[in-house]
Amino acid sequence: MATSRYRRNRVWAWHLMRQSVQSIRTPTYHFPSTIRVSLDQQENDMITRRQLLGAASMVLPGAGLIHSVAHAAYPERPIRLVVPYAPGGGSDVLARLVANAMSRRLSKSIVVENKGGAGGALGLEYVVRAPADGYTLILLSTSHASNAAVMSLTYDVIKDVTPIGLIASGPWILVVNSNLHVSDVTELLALAKAKPDSLNYASSGTGSSTHLATALFAQKAGIKVTHVPYRSSGQALTDLIAGRVQFMLASAPSVTGYVRDGKLKALCVSTAKRSPLFPDLPTAEQAGIHGFAEALWHGLAAPAKIPEKIVTALNQSLVSSLAEPSLRKQFETQGLEPQASTPQEFSTMLANDVALWRAIAKSIDIS
């Protein structure tokens, strides 16, 4: 009985090793010590068990080495960069600029895919479910931090994401209706304090980054104003120009034309530094809003737990791309400043932003 089982095991082992040898594309292999393995049936029959096992021990490590080398050559195929907003917007333009620059350095295409919805939340949900192999990336933005503060999400924007690096940041511009009788921030605050809750400010939706940022602005300025949410920044700007609301914080590219044409008046920028698009505008701090210095930011991220060497490769490519003078000039036309960072610096900033917006949301009763 034991002898019969031993023979069956030997036959099974023989067939297994024979299939492994036959699966090799090249019909003949040469090994040290003149061991020769051939696919010819007669020669196979002459190979002893010891020779076959010895040959296998030589073949399999070689295959493992080839497998390891292949995986070291990241990227082996095109990479997807998900933009969680509609095509044609500022985020989409930014993503395509960065994708082109990084593609040249990685020698592989980075293909931009737009997956909009829910203020960027749907696109991020798609990405965190993707394989953690470095072939699916996302353009993160300020909205993802504010979403985490007010939305019930199926993922954790901190735990389920691998930050690669910051890309750029830019200011919100405080703009008012052109017929409002104010010419600077001081006059706007005086009007708001004289008539509490009489001024309406627009945002791109309850709990959006523009809503929370304006709420923070009002707190720092010590004014009481009324929030009017819209479904998009475009709709909010339309009503601001028409005079249905009096002011709002908006991205620089979205209001540059309206300010130039006199349809809106710009009073200050939200960031700690002045904007190259509006060099004559003071910062909020310079205009008297102490402690208010917030920016719109964009960064590159991937699903959680991608290999460290891939994070490093992507970060190095991104940082190198952001140093390109031509790319920096294109950013300036969007009112953005390149912000190269390490993955850890981006991770820390993201966590701080989520904590800030959660505190603001709580203070104005949004949960």
Task: Detail the topology: elements first, then pairings.
Blueprint: H1 2-22, E1 28-30, E2 36-38, H2 41-46, H3 49-72, E3 79-83, H4 90-106, E4 110-114, H5 121-128, E5 136-141, H6 142-150, E6 161-177, H7 185-194, E7 200-203, H8 209-221, E8 226-229, H9 233-242, E9 247-251, H10 252-260, E10 264-269, E11 295-303, H11 308-322, H12 325-333, E12 337-338, H13 343-363
Parallel strand pairs: 3-4, 3-5, 7-8
Antiparallel strand pairs: 1-2, 5-11, 6-9, 6-10, 6-11, 6-12
Q: Explain this structure to me?
A:
With 367 residues, the chain is an alpha/beta fold. Among the domains are: 2-72, no CATH class; 79-168 and 302-323 and 341-363, 3-Layer(aba) Sandwich (D-Maltodextrin-Binding Protein, domain 2). The chain is built from 13 helices and twelve strands. The protein has helices at residues 2-22, 41-46, 49-72, 90-106, 121-128, 142-150, 185-194, 209-221, 233-242, 252-260, 308-322, 325-333, 343-363, and strands spanning 28-30, 36-38, 79-83, 110-114, 136-141, 161-177, 200-203, 226-229, 247-251, 264-269, 295-303, 337-338. Strands 3, 4, 5, 6, 9, 10, 11 and 12 form an eight-stranded mixed β-sheet that branches. It has a two-stranded antiparallel sheet with strand order 1-2. The protein has a two-stranded parallel sheet with strand order 7-8. Strand 7 (200-203), helix 8 and strand 8 form a beta-alpha-beta unit. Helix 6 (142-150) crosses helix 13 (343-363). It is globular and about 65 Å long. The model is unreliable at 1-71 (pLDDT under 50).
